Amino acid sequence: MWKDDGVYHFDPKSEKPVFSIDNPPRYTSGSLHLGHATGYSISDFAARYKRMRGHNVFFPLCFDVNGTPIEVKVEKKYNITKLDLPRKEYRKLCSDYANGFIAEMTRDFEKLGESMDPSIYYQTDATYYRKITQLSFVELFKKGLVYKANFPVNWCPRCMTALADAEVEYMDNVNKLNFIKFGVAGTDEYVLIATTRPELLCTCQVVAVHPDDADKRHLVGKELVTPLYGKKVKVIADEKVDPAYGTGFVMICTIGDKDDLEWVMKYHLPMEKGIDETGRMTALSGKYEGMPVAEAREAAIADLGESGLLVRQVDNPQQVSICWRCKTPIEYLQVPQWFLKTLDFKEEVLKRADEIRWHPEFMKVRLRDWVESLEWDWVLSRQRIFATPIPVWECADCGHAVCAEKEQLYCDPVEDGPPVEKCPECGGEMVGCTDVFDTWMDSSGSALYNTYWHRDDEMFRKLFPMSLRPQSHDIIRTWAFYSILRSEQIAQSVPWKEVMINGFIMAPDGTPMHSSVGNVIDPVPILEKYGADALRYYAATCSLGIDHAFRESDVVRGRKLCNKIFNLGQFVTRFFDSKPGKECNGLRVSDRWVLSRYSETVREATEWFETYQFDKAMKAIEGFIWHEFADHYVEMAKGRSDEAVKYTLYNVFYGSLKLMAPIMPHVTEELYQTIFRQFEGDASIHLASWPEPILYDSEAERIGDVLKDVVAAIRAWKSEKKMPLNAEIAFLELTGPDSSALESARDDISETAKASEIAIAESAELTEEVVGVKPVHSKLGPAFKSAAKAIVAAISSMDPSDVAKQIAGGSVKIEAGEVYELGPEYFELDKRLTLGGKAVETIQVGGILIVIEL
Fold this sequence. Notes:
This protein is of the alpha/beta class. It is 38% helix and 22% strand. It has 25 helices and 34 strands. A hairpin with a 2-residue loop joins strand 33 and strand 34. Helix 14 crosses helix 15, helix 16 packs parallel to helix 20 and helix 21 packs parallel to helix 22.
């Protein structure tokens, strides 16, 4: 129905205020998992809430169909690399693979009840989207913010592409620290140097020691001789060296790690290349040429050992830099790449971040920490295929680059001709760039695409910046950062006004879910077992910015709440044959109590929804529906048929459905269609207006809180006595200091308790009478032996009230063949309370004593 009627369609002609969501396009490299189901549900809560608040909501259905992750999956599936197929054929394999998930993912979104709008659908591999990516690059190129440089970059030898710092992950590992001999040039002496990468001895440029290391200071300025290669390298002093690590010597190679890179740049060292783009050793390594890095390392260690140059090895725990997608250890290679100026914009990005409202606020710290840690510009280019081509042609002779003109876009420089016939600098041939953009170049342009940048100026002014970016915390340093950077460079603006950060969903034991571990939870069986609203309830319990262990018990509770709401609908529907008026006279205390509590719930839940704290909103709404409306008011309303109860049930239940609708859209829509649509007229509850408070009555709340406790106590008493809840009570009296508050609630009490007569007084004339006497056999037997039986018989024939009087006097005389005088410990008295001569029982509820005639 929602799809057929276009319930969630954005209306570009509407005068309503726009609420636009920069929805994370789901990556199409596999099926939806539980984390996706939870994250997208949280985004949907915001969309549905804002729609009911009167906004024209922009919430696109979208998919990310781009980049290295898809290529990695395809290469594994077909056991190929990008070098094994023609470019166009390889791209088609990737496209077919990625697009193969979209229909299934769309169905999963529909099952979850996500109100994404297919009328503003996009996917990032489409020409219309890639054109916007290229267009933004052209503008940045013409502003002088893009440049090409032969600079060392993070390099994945498996994916055979450059990586940005944000695409590098870290893995704990234990490798070997190898202590090897370096000769001191011109002498027979040697020094020990500890290294984890002996395969890079061929690229060793210098050796460093700390300037304050007295044992090594004499070597500064001298030369050492590298083992295996016999190359002479100078010893330098640098304060960054840790004298306590290894032997206090550092062999600086090109390039083993980031420290090497920093020293290479600092001292302008030669950039000799020991490892190529495929992760194999170059000719510089001599006999190890062509070996994969790990194999060459083992071979070098073996050769060092055989030649007596390896003294010892020790385990060395360290963090290894790996590719974020294929998990291959990265290298640092000097490869020509395209860069976007980033370091020059660090302050501007931080200022824009301060203009954005962060939910939760503490997540902004992650962005700030990342920005402040940046040391290099963003590497835009990737040596891959299935992504947006970089629209540049370069001169084969002088290297001069020419960017595409706007009119040419979208284009692929490998297949399409340049905007000039020959190089404007030297007249040479122009060759199309084979590089593609980093996936985040596409993703970070989502706010520009969604707001019709360079497609519709009027719409752009209306929609940009967008209202909200929902995303997870792990991509703050990528998607959030790059989006803010791009918007600043292109539009001198924030991309959105607010950002909402959700956490990860962990395995039930609190550990991360990974397919390799086998603990990934598929949401589809959960949907089939419990229903979408139950799973969405679980999502609503997850606080923003925090990781949560999955608890199936929360889904079970969600299912129970669905059933509770549905059953309430079956109860209230019999009260309505028409819509009540806007106001109602004759409201009882119970009516005013529940209306006031409902109004307070509306106020509280609205405040939580406004700040996207759906867990707190859910707690308030659920608590009211279940523990106040259902448990108490509905029980008090069951025997009524007056207009006041119809007015109250209609407004409170309908309003409660609307409060719950963003979180549980299915059960609320079902009840709206079957009960309320005939009176309200809106095509869907999700197009209805958000509820407003009806009345606040603190006095009614005070009395009502006492009333509900009294009624609940009487119902519990009946259950304990195994009496039907509708069993009549002849007489009920309420006494005590708080009883007068219930004077105005007589009707509610008498009808709910089924009391024929009710009295309210400050105190009750209760009397206690003894109605039976029981001998304590466990004491009589040992004390009186054979006479105990006669004593028991005598007690049973005595008047209970007479026994009670004697006990009060201190002892009881018993004639059983002879006279015995027994103390109170030999008797148990059965007593009962009476009121006006009639037997009663009492229940204490706070400052009220409930007296019930038996």
